[in-house]
Amino acid sequence: MKPVKVGICGLGTVGGGTFNVLTRNAQDIARRAGREIIIAQVATRHPNPDVDTGAVAVTADVNDVINNPEIDVVVELIGGYTIAKDVVLGAIANGKHVVTANKALIAVHGDEIFAAAEAKGVSVMYEAAVAGGIPIIKAIREGLAANRINWLAGIINGTGNFILTEMRDKGRDFADVLAEAQALGYAEADPTFDVEGIDAAHKLTILSSIAYGIPLQFARCYTEGISKVTPDDVEYAEELGYRIKHLGVSRRTDKGIDLRVHPTMIPVARPIATVDGVLNAVMVNGDAVGNTLYVGAGAGAGPTASAVVADIIDLARTFDAPAEASVNHLAFNDIEDVAVLPMEEVETAYYLRIQAEDKTGVLAAVASILSERGINIEAIIQKEPKDGEALAQIILLTHVVVEKQMNEAIAAIEALSSTVGNVTRIRVEHLN
Fold first, then answer.
1. CA-CA 20 to 30 A from 313: which of 147, 262, 339, 380?
2. Of 115, 128, 37, 72, which Cα lies nearest the Cα of 311?
3. Which domains does the chain have, with CATH numbers?
4. Among the options 170, 203, 228, 404, which is catalytic?
5. Alpha helices, DSSP H only, in 185-324?
6. Sign of torsion, CA 323 311 223 400?
7. Global pTM value
8. Helices 103-120 + 198-212 axis angle, to 10
9. What's the pLDDT tens digit per position in 245-261?
């Protein structure tokens, strides 16, 4: 059977890992795919010392790869929006299949890319774009295809999970752990995408589209980072029986789709609460299967290369099949333009931490404000001022309420003469 010839664009961490996996496991890969998979050409501007390209043709110009008539599959591992987009669209225009690990490109430009691919009768595979080595996209698109997906929630950024784990286990401040994460290579010199939730929002956008059959809508994803989470919040969450994780949450509702990334308190009894360090985890709830949980390495050369090569194998298995026989890029043949809810219409429970003067009547005033807005309190902790401090801490857990009501309540609490500074708000999800 005719071999499948692959061109790799980008030979960094993931590109190098992909090259090495394809080379090292060539025999087993051929047995799984039913044909040989051969690396025909590599485009890179920076040689990777961990990769021996041997007799494989190497070029510094990606156009050499996308215009090479011998190449069947272009693997885009450059990253970013600009050159990567040109590579992907150029490969599609030349009738080549594409495999990419680029979550930002798919989340922002995926609808355009998929339309171009469908017009040319080629496939764009992107398993490696979400959660590295966890085959979560295949699980939702194929393994759970019989289900109506109700909701999903994921720890889909390892940097944020590492930081929150260190804060919980060692009582360290956010800034201190972030510096260590950068030193260890878990976080970039500019950590904005990781700690402010943008990376997770890219991934959640993709997962939500394939879960519900809706367009990719990254611009509508509510995004909030973890930089304001304090060791006190982590400690009080544990005291209440919860754990703080930076979650991407998406839920199907009668009004539309939730699409949000933010610090989230979840019960310690939930298995996802025990996923620590740089690991990723995704929970998916389907109407037939119930809750399912997928855990594994979310980044790195090996795990991400595993997902990239799995996509190449899938393409090789169906290489001679007609285009209409392949699974739709977003898992549904008919995409529904369902509304994504504005954040103020989302319903969830809340943790509130309020700094207040240590005097009688403050808690009563806070409780009155919540009651007037139909917000029920589930639990209260009142902490006396610590040594050398003048302010007490009031910690509340509420029942589920619409975010707009909570916004109004927080504004009223902050306006009290007896409270100081901003109210800390962390959303609570029970994932049941």
1. 147
2. 128
3. 4-133+301-325 (3.40.50.720), 136-297 (3.30.360.10), 343-428 (3.30.70.260)
4. 203
5. 192-195, 198-212, 231-239, 301-317
6. positive
7. 0.95
8. 40
9. 999 999 999 999 999 99
